[in-house]
Write a structure and sequence with these properties.
Length: 87
């Protein structure tokens, strides 16, 4: 059986805010900041991000740029995407 990149449901049982999930998945603050500059800041409410259409999430990752002005690398986009897949 192939391993999943996503954590098990039991591992996420205590996670209830955006910050807790970002910390759990070790998403760098700079990546998250760049992403929310494109799609808007959900604050601490995971439901607001969960309600976004996948096309908005993908476009946000495409348009986001790091502090150096570079677009996200494939790994950086996947890191943000991993957060969004867990919601």
């Amino acid at each position: 059986m192939a391993a999943s990149a996503l954590p098990a449901e039991l591992e996420l049982a205590g996670v209830s805010t955006v910050r807790e999930l970002l910390d759990f998945l070790e998403v760098p603050d700079g990546l998250w900041t760049a992403f929310v500059q494109q799609v808007g800041d959900p604050g601490h409410d995971i439901r607001l991000i969960a309600a976004l259409p996948k096309s908005v999430i993908a476009q946000g990752a495409i348009q986001a740029s790091t502090a150096t002005g570079a677009g996200f690398s494939a790994v950086q986009a996947a890191h943000v995407g991993l957060f969004l897949a867990d919601i």
